[in-house]
Amino acid sequence: MSKAIVIHQTGDPTVMQWENFDPGEPCPGEVRLRQEAVGLNFIDIYHRTGLYPLPALPAVPGLEGAGVVESVGTGVSEFKPGDRVAYAGVPPGAYAQERCIPAHRLVKLPDGINTRQAAGMMLRGMTARYLLVGCYPVKAGSRILVHAAAGGVGTLLCQWGRHLGAEVIGTVGSVEKAELAKQNGCQHPILYAETDFVAAVKEITDGQGVDVVYDGVGQATFMQSLDCLRPMGTMVSFGQSSGAIAPLDVGLLSAKGSLFLTRPSLMAYTAKRDDLLAHARDLFDVVTAGAVKIAIGQTYPLEAAAQAHQDLESRKTTGSTVLIP
Fold it and tell me: Which GO MF terms are attached to this record (predicted)?
């Protein structure tokens, strides 16, 4: 029998148990998938801790993976056994050797992208796409600030932003991560532990501020990020790895320059099938063209998911992390 990581209660990484798991046969509209790689993301931690509740417990967490179609349910015509596919987003259930998933959430992989690459890029890559295109239309000459510029989403934002012609500023936690961010297109890495990043951004932009801030850190950076924006700039809060953001008096947005604030999600931006395919197509295009390179910083056996969570929470990882079933 195949196995999966199962959560019976929320809590620290020890609540994840490696158990026998039978996904069953695909229901109408579903595909049964043999997974070759699973992506690790901060939202998995939020699900494990209960910050973002899973639909029900016990549950198999995980929102990203790639593998090979084993069988299809009735009504599925877009996929067939043997197809290489990938996905990112709901429903959860990725931390498994085999799983069933609605066919409309899958995309076929082009020949030039392997399943480990796909598992390390689908959620982050499509996130980067909606951040750079949907939340704010980054173009040549745009100035952007990327927090955690050496992280999984950050490295992709830096590369893709530079590809679009933006001036990329990023915050990082160490000299090593600053070098990594530079290698991925960040022209101005800022060591936030040693430097006031607001002052640094103002110096880099000659006092003008940036057009958009991409903040997946949350509590530790949110308020200062607002001060990095030009008038009528856009604050994109898409995560909270440092903790939840305190309630905000929206009048502050007016006082700081008629700012725009959005809290987007990949699920909303890819809810429609056409939008999902557009996000995946654009991601595959920049990766196959070499404009965006997918760095798998580390891999773990799927059964060692608890250690992977600990390392991600401790900021010991760089780039993407992939779990191997």
Answer: mRNA 3'-UTR AU-rich region binding; NADPH binding; quinone reductase (NADPH) activity
